[in-house]
Amino acid sequence: MPLALNRDAWFKVWLESDEDIEEENRPHFVSRYLADNSYRQMVGIEERVEQVGDDLGAILSEMEDVLCLAVVDWRNMTDPLTHKEIKFSREAVGEVLNPSEVWELIYKILAQNRLKVDAQKKFESPSPIRTGKSAKGARARKRAKTSRRKGSPS
Description:
Layout: E1 10-13, E2 28-32, H1 36-43, H2 45-52, H3 56-70, E3 71-75, H4 90-96, H5 99-113, H6 117-123, H7 132-151
Antiparallel strand pairs: 1-2, 2-3
Helix pairs in contact: 2-3, 3-5
């Protein structure tokens, strides 16, 4: 099953400013893995923000929309005045995060979605093309050439 469709495949990201908070109490964001189209949208956010120009509202809205392609929930988010839990929603993202924090999360999510070479090898599917005969044939042709060279006059 593709990682982006696996309901059990998610990861946590948190802000650098919260790293010192013990894990069980640390505010964090629950993110899903992205399929190619969503990943492309997230990667292209910088270019789109530049195209929007000076419309700050449009820029912030676009950034929050892109962040919510991946973030599906959060934990340990509480209102500092009421101490009540803040429920996750697209609208609440703009009430909780500042623009720098949105950028930080976008970059962390993109980094988590990139597989390292070792991880990719772990998930590689076997090649659907059988190369047994062609490899043997190539070795036989190479041996024949080598034999002819040995037997040819110098």
